[in-house]
Amino acid sequence: MSDYQLRNTVLNLLLRIDKDNGFSNLVIDSELKSGRVNPKDEGLLTEVVYGTIQRKLTLDYYIDSFVDSKKKLDDWVKMLLRMSIYQMVFLDKVPDHAIINEAVEIAKKRGHKGTASFVNGVLRNIQRKGVPDTAEIKNAAKRIAIETSHPEWLVERWTAAYGLETTKEMCLTNLNRKSVSIRVQPLKITRNEAMKALSEQGFEIRESVFSDQGIIIDKGNILKSDLFNDGFVTIQDQSSMLVAEMLNVEKEMHVLDACSAPGGKVTHIAEKMKNTGKIHAYDLHQKKVKLIDKKAADLQLSIIDAKAVDARLLQEEHEEESFDRIVVDAPCSGLGVLKGKPEIKYHKKESDINRLATIQLDILESVAPLLKKEGLLIYSTCTVDPQENEGVVNKFLDRNSNFSIDGRFFEELPSEIKSSPGITAAGLQLFPQTHETDGFFLTRFIKN
Ligand SMILES: C[S@@+](CC[C@H](N)C(=O)[O-])C[C@H]1O[C@@H](n2cnc3c(N)ncnc32)[C@H](O)[C@@H]1O
Fold this sequence. Notes:
Blueprint: H1 3-19, H2 24-33, H3 42-54, H4 56-64, H5 75-90, H6 96-110, H7 113-129, H8 140-148, H9 152-162, H10 164-173, E1 180-184, H11 191-200, E2 204-207, E3 214-219, H12 226-229, E4 233-235, H13 238-247, E5 254-257, H14 264-272, E6 278-283, H15 286-298, E7 304-308, E8 323-329, H16 344-347, H17 350-367, E9 371-381, H18 387-399, E10 403-405, H19 408-412, E11 423-424, E12 427-430, E13 440-447
This protein binds S-adenosylmethionine.
S-adenosylmethionine is lined by residues 240, 259-265, 282-285, 288, 310-312, 329, 331, 382.
Binding site for S-adenosyl-L-methionine: 259-265, 283, 310, 329
Keywords: Cytoplasm, Methyltransferase, RNA-binding, rRNA processing, S-adenosyl-L-methionine, Transferase
Catalytic activity: cytidine(967) in 16S rRNA + S-adenosyl-L-methionine = 5-methylcytidine(967) in 16S rRNA + S-adenosyl-L-homocysteine + H(+)
């Protein structure tokens, strides 16, 4: 693949992610798996696609200061400018003149001579004058929003909840690439055995403190390893591993996972139960239920019964007090996973949060009667938002006096996390900047 073809592919991927609301990680993975991209170019392709999405608002701020606001740009022209400026400003692998020449070539082929000279003019101007200084933006929230490419409403919302410094740190951390962590399937391999095998294959790895099944990968592509392809390990963020760790399951228990797809946590729970007992795993979408079945089959776990049912209607499926443990890993705004799925920050609206908080509470209330007395219920989300997290927990407690937060939850947390800044009476909010994880919330209720 020539440099020109590589840049054209990057542009196509970016347009696809933008137009179809596609998840960047899925779109990139499928392109890399297609075999069309030369392995030596994989790093640059991934970096430019992610980086351009991560920095979209910053890049648009730069473009706006060089382009007349009345000029209407085609989507592809704007995206071509964004990806070119991203490389010129934030990467130093390719010289500016080569980036500009290739952008002009693409513009010539996709548009006409006029488009090419417009693209050339904007990029040469930026090369000559440099990008505008964001320090001149007086309003602090607006400045963080532009500098870290987060929508202003989100910066204001986080600032109100966690303060300006924490918000700034969180927004900056969200610009970093996501670290990969994996979980071993302990019925097939021990963590030590997996670590030894990975080290021998040249991976740089560390033990996770979140789970005795967890391994952090500092270097190496796990998707290409036999351990992954043969179902000895699965990819899971360390924060998500806490759910099964804190659920305290035992062999032969009866467990409900109300929002289960694609099956990351439910398979971990099945491993903890040593593939004995029964887990009922639900998800709203039939298509996604297939993903749970596939993950369970890959990991050779047979106790998971997956079915498409709206979790708000589970009282029609099961009798009261029939489960020892319940997990509600609720649909949420996903604002904790912006490192890996940066496009989420542009698609989410503040009004989505009200709607999601209602669904989260409805699901909790629907499954609450199904839990046995003294049973444990974990509520978790992959978001950083006080309304969806502590807010939903407190509303649930107000309306369900037979439930309380299980105080042992805080004692049982891994020692490295016990004094985490995100601990409140309602549970544990993990921030992306604190423990090398996604932003994640979890808490444990006990039924009295
Ligand atoms: C955070 S994800 C769950 C991730 C999963 N627990 C895992 O570890 O792989 C939330 C899931 O809830 C599902 N969902 C959304 N609304 C639902 C509902 N009313 N009932 C059941 N599942 C729902 C979504 O389809 C999505 O797969």
